[in-house]
Design a protein that fits this description.
single chain; 144 residues; alpha+beta; 4-stranded antiparallel sheet; 4 strands
């Protein structure tokens, strides 16, 4: 039963990603206040993450106007899947400059205590966005 729940969470996360990016990204940048893990095995979280990433890749080929196979879409889908399982996942967005100082780079990844996420920070030196206190729908950039 938990495998079915993980599969469902991954597919639903991928399906909801475009709408959440458009209207509710601020809620995923902030860490959830409390969680009640329904996951008894980290393999369920890993399966939900893999399914979310795979589903985004597939639907991006079918409907590229709505979905994109980018770090933001994959991270949002993974975060939604992990939160559906009751885990305290959050999307982190970082910005910085590339080797050529005039190029700005951005990246999105997921952080979730106790879970190895597929969306990771990588090696780039990035400043991360955090939500402003009292206004979860807005964010500001802070230096780590």
């Amino acid at each position: 039963m938990s495998t079915l729940r993980a599969l469902s969470a991954g597919v639903r996360g991928a399906w909801r990603a475009p709408a959440v990016i458009a209207k509710g990204l601020g809620t995923l940048i902030a860490a959830p206040a409390a969680s009640s893990p329904h996951v008894r095995d980290v393999r369920d979280a890993a399966l939900a993450s893999r399914v979310a990433h795979a589903a985004v890749a597939r639907v991006a080929r079918l409907a590229p106007a709505r979905w994109r196979n980018s770090c933001l879409y994959r991270s949002v889908a993974e975060c939604l899947a992990l939160r559906a399982l009751g885990l305290p996942a959050r999307v982190v967005i970082g910005v910085g400059t590339s080797a050529a100082a005039d190029d700005v780079i951005a990246h999105a990844w997921v952080e979730c205590e106790g879970v190895t996420c597929l969306s990771t920070r990588g090696q780039a030196d990035l400043e991360t966005m955090t939500p402003r206190t009292g206004r979860p729908s807005s964010a500001r950039i802070v230096t780590p």
